[in-house]
Amino acid sequence: MDKHEEKKLEEFVDRIMADAPLESPSVDFTKNLMQKIEVQSHQEAFQYKPIMSRSVLVGLFVAFSVLMGYVISQYGLGDGTGWFDKITWEPNFKPLWGWLENYTSSKVWVYAVLLFGFLFFVQVPWLKKHMDRTALLK
Amino acid sequence: MLTNKEKELIEEIRRGNARAFTDLVERYKDLVFTLSLRLLGNREEAEEVSQDAFIKIYKSLATFKGDSKVSTWIYRIAYNTALDRIKKNKRAHDHVEIDQVRKMGLADMDDALDKMVQEEKRQLIDQCLAKLPTEDAGIITLFYFEEKNLLEMEKILNVSANTIKVKLFRARKKLAGIMETSLEREILESNG
């Protein structure tokens, strides 16, 4: 096909395309689209997102397993030579809670602690309700 | 690249103004739907793909740098969304034997088209475009949507202007061939 014929073909297609109809989607296209966007953005706002991705967790698990394998291979498992067997397991809470034996407190102090505890448990559901409402409004 | 009006519109959408996004959809929905329809050949599917394309547009507005016209960016997303759907369905129509005008000639075809009623003519053109292979239909549609700007088309199709020119030439030949067959059939039918 020479240049002249090519030009003619181009002009012919230009004329056809000038008459080609522009199609329209359904009447409620925009309305449906906006509803879809609204639903999706609401879902995204409440979507669970793990702090660590699956690959990081798998990596950590593998690293931990390798470390454990190394420790076991180096120090053995309960043959009396490892450091694990040298740890004393008898619990001794005396230094930690010993001060409680002689402790006394005033009535006012007890009431204050109880009231603080009560209010703390009241505000947890109240705060949850408040945060749910503000998230919905957004 | 962007006009002040386009910049304002995009800023409004980024600020969360739903009304501004509705305006953008209203402005481009027919073009996006027509492009999808010509690529997919099915109205229901084209509507779904157009909706998906607009959702992608909405989500990627935050990262749109404005290095091309808004329309080019929208067509690129719509074109790729339609292609993804075609790949997913593994259903591109690409078998057109006719790739050139044989007997009638372009001038005769012009005459025949001129004699047709406008509505009839539009219907015939629509049918012929639907018979074009997916790639050709996409290239021809985008060429006219982009007002014959090959540089903008490069950004949509990710191929060089010269490649687009070659593809356009082939698509034109195929369209003229399909048009000829359809007109011959029309003439035969009208002559009884």
TrEMBL record, chain A:
Entry keywords, A to Z: Membrane, Transmembrane, Transmembrane helix
Residues annotated as transmembrane: 56-77, 108-127
Protein name as annotated: Uncharacterized protein
Organism of origin: Flagellimonas pelagia
From TrEMBL, chain B:
Keyword Transcription regulation: yes
GO biological process, one term: DNA-templated transcription initiation
Domain RNA polymerase sigma-70 region: 24-91
GO molecular function per UniProt: DNA binding; sigma factor activity
InterPro entries linked to this entry: RNA_pol_sigma-70-like, RNA_pol_sigma-70_dom, RNA_pol_sigma70_r2, RNA_pol_sigma70_r4_t2, RNA_pol_sigma_r2, RNA_pol_sigma_r3/r4-like, WH-like_DNA-bd_sf
Keywords: Sigma factor, Transcription, Transcription regulation
Keyword Transcription among UniProt keywords: yes
Stored Pfam families: Sigma70_r2 (PF04542), Sigma70_r4_2 (PF08281)
Annotated RNA polymerase sigma factor 70 region 4 type domain residues: 123-175
Coiled coil: none
Family of the protein in this entry: Belongs to the sigma-70 factor family. ECF subfamily.
Protein name: Sigma-70 family RNA polymerase sigma factor
Origin species: Flagellimonas pelagia
